[in-house]
Amino acid sequence: MNPDLLAAIIIEGQKNIRNISIIPRDYHFEDSLNYVLVGLRRSGKSTLLFKRAQDLVNKQNVDWSQIVYLNFEDERLDGFQLSDCNNILIAANQLTTKKHYFLFDEIQNIEGWEKFARRLADQGESVYLTGSNSKVLGHDIVLRLGGRYMAKYIAPFNFSEYLTAKNISHDKLALLDTVNNGQIRAVANEYLRYGGLPESILLSDKRNYLTNIYQNVFLADIIVRNKIRNEKTISLLIRKIADTVMHIVSYANLYKNVKSVINTVSRNAIIDYIDYAKEAYLIFSTKNYFAKFNERESSPKYYFTDNGILNLFYIDKLPALLENIVAIKLHNKYQKKLFYLKSKKTGVDIDFYVPASKTAIQVAWEVNDTSKEREIGNLLKLADNFTEVENLVIVTHGEEETIEKEGKTIQLVPLYKFLLE
Predict the structure, then answer these.
(1) Whole-structure pTM value
(2) Contact 210, 309 (CB under 8 A)
(3) In the Cβ-directed half-sphere of 140, how many Cα atoms lie within 13 Å?
C-alpha cells in the first residue's frame, strides 16, 4: 500500500472530521491510555472517535496534522494487509514528525491487526480503535490486545443527549417552563418507544431503520460471528427473551419454551445463544442480590440495550418498555453492580437495587389504588428487613409525589425526571 496514497487519505480524513458537527457526549478519555470502543451497532462509536479528535485539537493544542484517521472500510484500502501497516507510520511522518494520534475504524478488516495495535501501544503511541461487533468485542478484546488497551462501552444516546440532538433545552430552568416541560415529556414518550440510536432521531420511519439495525446485529454479530446454522432457533429465543422483560426467567424455562416449538434444541445451546446475544450488546441481565451464586447465574432478568429494538417485538407493552428504559439508564451507569431483589423468606420483590447509592427502585406505569399497596408495600417491607437500603423510589410514567408512611419516605418520580437525573 503506497504511503503517498495513505497520506492523502489521512489528510482527507482530517478535513472531514474538522467540519463535522457532533453532539457532545458524556464520555471521558485519559490521555495516558489507549482505547477500543465497543457497543451495539450504530450506537455512535465512530462519531465519538471524531469528537475525540476535535477535542485534542481544540482543547489540547494538538495540530490537525497529528491526527491519523483511517476507516478500513474505505474502498481505497481494499486489500490492505498486516504487512502494509508500517506504511501508515511512514505516511504519518510525512505529514508531521510530532506525536501522532491514531484513530482506526473497522480495523478488524486487517487480518492480524492485533499485532499492529500492540506494537503501537508498546511504542507509546496514542491509539483509539473501533470495530464491527462481529469480530471486535469487549468481552475478549482486552485479552487479545495483551492488556494494552482499555475497552470503553459506548451506549446509544441517553435522554439528555437525545434532547440535545433535538435542540430542546433541559436544564433546571427549562424544566420549570410550561411549554418546554411539555416538549420534554413528549420526547420522553418518543424515547421510550424508539430508543436512543443516534441516526434514528431525525428519521420519520424509525421502525424500519431499527428493523434494519436489528437484522444486522442478528445476522452479522450473532449468526455469522458464531457460525450458527440454526438461525430459526436463536430468532425464537430472542423473541422469547423479549417476552420475559419485567420477569425472572431461568435457562430451564427458556429451554422449555423454545423446545416446545423446535424440539431439536439442547439446553447448552440455549445458554450459548444467550451469551452470543450479550456479546453482541443486544441484551444484558441483572441478578438477584439476595441469591446464592449459582442461583444468581441461573435465574436472571433480561433487558435489551435499546428500547427501539425491544419495541420491534411488541404491539402495545408500555409497562415493559418503561422498566426496560429504567434498566438501560441504571445499567449504563452501574454495569454489573446493578441487581434486583427477590426473597422467598421475606416476600420482598424489588425491580432494581443499586448498592452504590443504597437505592431500591420499583417501576410502575401508574400508581393507582390497585397497585399502590403492592408497590409501596414492597418497598416498606424491604426497608424493614434490609437496613442497607436508604432511598426508596418508584419510577412512573408521569406521576410525581412524596409519600411519607411508617416513618419512611418514598419518592414517586416521573420517567422524564428520572432519565435526566
Answers:
(1) 0.94
(2) yes
(3) 12
Chain position carrying cell 424489588: 350
Instruction: Dump pLDDT digits (tens) for 62-121.
Output: 999 999 999 999 999 999 999 999 999 999 999 999 999 999 998 888 989 999 999 999
Three-class DSSP category at 151: strand
- Kindly state the helix (H) or strand (E) to which residue 391 belongs, with its residue range: strand 391-396
Buried b / exposed e over 282-300, threshold 16 CB at 10 Å, is: bbbbbbbbbbeeeebeebb
State phi, psi for 283 to the nearest 5 degrees.
-135, 165
Distance CA(415)–CA(400), nearest Å, equals 9
Contact 320, 314 (CB under 8 A): yes
- Give me the residue label for grid cell 443499586: 354
How does pLDDT run across 384-415, given as a tens digit for each residue?
999 999 999 999 999 999 999 999 999 999 99
pLDDT in tens, 225-271: 899 998 999 999 999 999 999 999 999 999 999 999 999 999 999 99
Q: Assess contact for 379 and 350: CB atoms under 8 A.
A: yes
For domain 3-153, give the fold.
Rossmann fold (3.40.50)
Predicted confidence (pLDDT) per residue in 196-232, tens digit: 999 999 899 999 999 999 999 999 899 998 999 989 9
Element (H, E) at 128: strand 126-130
- Grid cell at residue 154: 459506548
Domain ranges within the chain, ordered by starting residue:
3-153, 199-420
